Amino acid sequence: MIEVVDVVKTFTVRRRAGRVRRVRTEAAAVEGVSFTVGRGEFVGLLGPNGAGKSTTIKMLTGILTPTSGTVRVCGLDPAHRRTALARRTGVVFGQRTTLWWDLPLRDSLALVRRLYRVEAAAHRARLAELTALLELGPFLDTPVRQLSLGQRMRGDLAAALLHAPELLVLDEPTIGLDVVSKATVRGFLERLNAERGTTILLTTHDLGDIERLCPRVMIIDRGRLAYDGGLERLRAEAGGDRVLVVELARPGPPVRVPGVTVDRVEGPRQWLRLPRSANAAQVVAALAGGHEVRDIALREPGIEEVVARLYRGEREYRPGAPAQRPAAAE
Amino acid sequence: MGVFPWVAWYAFRRHTAYPLGSAAEAVTNTAFGFLRAYVLIALWQARPALGGYDAADAVTFTFLTQALIGPVQIFGGMELTDRIRSGAVAIDLYRPAGLQSWWLADDLGRAAGALLLRGTLPMLAGALAFPLRLPGPAGLAAFTLSFLLATLVGFALRYLVALGTFWLHDERGLQAISLVLSLFLSGMILPLVVFPGALGAAARALPWAALIQVPAEVFLGRREGPRLVSALAFQAGWAVVLLAAGALLTRRARRRLVIQGG
Amino acid sequence: MADRPFDAVRVYALLAWTWIRAAAQYPVSLALLTLGTAVVTSLDAAAIVVLFGHAPRIAGFTAPEVLFLYGTSSLSFAVSDLLVGTTELLGRHIREGSLDAMLVRPVSPLIQIATEDFSVRRLGKLVPAGLVLGYALPRLDTAWTAGRVVLVPVLVLAGVAIFGGIWVLAGAVQFVLIDGAGATKSLTYGGAYLTQYPLTMFARDLVRGVTFVVPLAFVNWMPALYVLDRPDPLGLPGAARFASPAVAVLTCGAAALAWRAGLRRYRSTGS
């Protein structure tokens, strides 16, 4: 469905040098990224601000042309076949609407039908389905500018899917949404992928999106693909230290166990940091030998922490040869 | 330092933060200055000494007008309108400072920024291409005062239009009417001295004349001594009347907002 | 880009109609705004009337002659503004990212921008233009040969195309100068103002500029010289008076090229 090989995107940046003089420098937003996404996959694209996520998405949808490398989406070159590609993909920007601000949602959707030349009967069926799934009914006749962010996002999703695209690209679809809207959107995307087989690629800052939806995660950092694989492997490979929370019988000084550092002491509770190399059982045994232990719990690092560590570059993760996936043939 | 100088300073900074957009506007203001100057030169060639002006007066008038477009914001509009429409004005009304004073301070800062960024280029270009009639130090001082009063009147008029948003479903109609009046009756399209009889007299008595026509006359040195005092009094009078009307309307608007709950 | 020219027209009409319907939901506002637009536009005509209240001839031209220029210029400008005037908002679309949203739809972004907020309100500009032209035409002191009669609608149409090309050129400039909208108004609105008056009023260099660089003189001045039977102050060959349609084609072609180049640049630089 998506094939990206050695894609580079550089921008020319003008910087002030002194009062009047400006220097032009080349800045690479994306530096040699390669990946493939197969039909029916649900992939999350993570990365800090300015890492190259949006630039990548824009190259996939034909908004930007890559400086070098090749991109194929649905078998088309987005840079040259932007319009043809637009008929086969749906794109949603969380930060801004693609709907017409002053039109009621229903009219916006009717217009989308005409622009994408969807047959009237197919449109009716699809609109009914999307209206039910996204619960659009109550605000179909409200002008878009009066919709809440959550309603607008659901409207945008409907507009992006009316022409039954094979691929749905979402840029920050849950940004700024309240808990209920987030759950609706996530539930909808999950069903769309599972039942319709629509390939979905989304960028997000919300790791909840990733944990809930994406079996596969790609992390872009400083223009490079820092990770590509499952969530579990990410945890295991990139994953920081585990934490052992111990509750002793009485407060005391930090315990001394070889290979373990005490992060925090709070009354009888102590937080012990275990490196990946440490054997948890041995540590527990050593503890029990010297102290009276009331309770003990082992915490795996949260996904937030894993990703934060990756962003900070504490652990360079370099995938070897890109995983060989069957090319998304037409 | 009180809060209002700070508001004005902040507005000045905000409106001068992106000078490119203002510079682009200044280019168009200057281009129109040239086009309108040639039209008036043609008229004064056919009718020298029309309205007591000579061609140099008319040309100076034109470029001055173009330089004042930005500072007195002759085409109308105020950010307050958007805040009323979005309901954000409720926040402004909760401030311990008065709504009108707050926005007046903001507008004075904006006007200063606009004078700098949009007023300089038309005058400079006009002075390079034509023999303009420039005032001496005393005239310049008088003009500064007159310009300040013009800014006050301009603000007061636009503030009244902006407050209309509280009551109107769509304020753009009101803005269109206000635009017509301020373009035609200020001297922006043509100096009011070429307006015929009653129309000219009426235009010169209405507040829009305080925006362009009167400051331009002060600039040209056509108002000196007692006539200067009467010119400034005319501007100040309209400023007081319109600002008072604005204060009254602000009270009404506040009451309306409290009753309707925003 | 749309697949075929016919398709572009279909999509344009579709988008324009949608906007018109949206505006029509508030008929009172729409009527007031249309009226307001008409009145603002007629201020320039009022200025001409005031000017000629003081002198029977200005720069060698009479009031009906100048009103003829005003009528043709503002008729052409109003129609071109209605069709493609919103391309001047390109810079804003780039800043706000809405151009990206347009680029993921299967329709030319030029059509999408041109139809944005398409409103009959802008038809308000046609009213004073039409009225003034209707007033001026029978008062012209000219021998109405068949050629002159035919040339009037031709010059209006060519004027629409030339102004249209200038709108799109001015929009395309903003691919490079995002904050340039304020300056490109010199060409669009400035051009509309300039062509309301006989070019004999303006400095010779300015006239050369609007003849050979930005072809504003071909909007109405050149053909009007033929209609009004006047000599050309620049002394160009007589054929120049009939060159407006050809100049219109050239201007539109240049505008299309500039737009494509601008869009290509935007897509390779992302800014």
From TrEMBL, chain A:
Source organism superkingdom: Bacteria
Localization annotation: Cell membrane
A family per Pfam: ABC_tran
GO MF terms held by the record: ATP binding; ATP hydrolysis activity
Membrane topology: Peripheral membrane protein
BP GO terms, sorted: response to antibiotic
SMART domains from the UniProt entry: AAA (SM00382)
Chief place of localization: membrane
Domain ABC transporter: 2-247
Swiss-Prot/TrEMBL keywords: Antibiotic resistance, ATP-binding, Nucleotide-binding, Transport
GO cellular component, one term: plasma membrane
The protein's name: Vitamin B12 import ATP-binding protein BtuD
Automatic annotation (TrEMBL), chain B:
Domain of life the protein comes from: Bacteria
TM spans (from-to): 140-161, 173-199, 228-249
Pfam families for this protein: ABC2_membrane_6
Alphabetized UniProt keyword annotations: Membrane, Transmembrane, Transmembrane helix
PANTHER family, per the entry: INTEGRAL MEMBRANE PROTEIN (PTHR36832:SF2), SLR1174 PROTEIN-RELATED (PTHR36832)
Protein name: ABC transporter permease
Automatic annotation (TrEMBL), chain C:
Residues spanning the membrane: 30-55, 67-85, 149-169, 175-194, 206-228, 240-259
Hydrolase found in the keyword field: no
Keywords: Membrane, Transmembrane, Transmembrane helix
Pfam families hit by this protein: ABC2_membrane_6 (PF06182)
Superkingdom of origin organism: Bacteria
Protein name: Transporter
